[in-house]
Amino acid sequence: MNPRVLVAGIGNVFLGDDGFGVETVRALSAHPLPDGVEVVDFGVRGVHLAYQLLDGYDALVLVDATARGGAPGTLYLIEVEVDAPAAAGGTAPGAAAGPQAAGPGEGPALDGHHMSPDTVLALLGALCAGTGATPPRRTLVLGCEPACVEEGIGLSAPVAAAVPEAVRMALDLLDRPAPDEAGAPRRELRRIP
């Protein structure tokens, strides 16, 4: 059986470069993909993404605008390290703190228009704890440094120019072996001829 992988485009197309994830998954979906790979434009529907992940995926690739201080159009591939606090509704190491609950045990506070990837993962952790579901074993963020995330439709020139390279990175990622827990290469996905 092939591993199930979800490639999720995240972002708001009405906020300029924040639409990077949406535009990238649109372009990616035009390519043949390995069996078991789903490419979905979630836009600003972070709660929907968290619930879909309860269906059981081996890996998650979030495609999103990611401000890390580089030049606009710079692409990043970030492996999300999920530790026990993050899986229980906290924040993953190195991630910005997302909205938190008012009290212990209440899970993350939800704001459907401001669901950053760390907030989606925190919600997923809370949902998995409540349902007994298992989160993806591996989570990656394919991000792009935005130039402008103010109101407006359309990507800036450097971010638009990065979309084809982001698609190539995603295709390469979906086709290459990843190390297993012991460090030996394993086949995460396969490309069908």
Tell me the overall shape: globular
Which structural category do the helix and sheet elements fall into? Answer: alpha/beta
Task: Please state the CA-atom Rg, rounded to the nearest Å.
Answer: 16 Å
Secondary-structure element order, as H and E? EHEHEEHHEHEE
Helix content: 25-40%
Tell me the strand order in the biggest sheet. Answer: 2-1-3-5-4
Q: What would you call the quaternary organization?
A: single chain
Could you tell me the mean pLDDT?
A: 76
Describe the structure.
This protein is of the alpha/beta class and 193 residues long. It is 28% helix and 19% strand. It is built from five helices and seven strands; from the N terminus they run E-H-E-H-E-E-H-H-E-H-E-E. The protein has helices at residues 20-28, 46-53, 84-87, 117-131, 157-175; strands at 5-10, 37-43, 59-65, 75-80, 138-144, 178-179, 185-186. The strands form two sheets. Strands 2-1-3-5-4 form a five-stranded mixed β-sheet, with helices on both faces. A two-stranded antiparallel sheet has the order 6-7. Strand 6 and strand 7 (185-186) form a beta hairpin. The chain is globular.
Q: What can be said about this structure in brief?
A:
The chain has helices at residues 20-28, 46-53, 84-87, 117-131, 157-175; strands at 5-10, 37-43, 59-65, 75-80, 138-144, 178-179, 185-186.
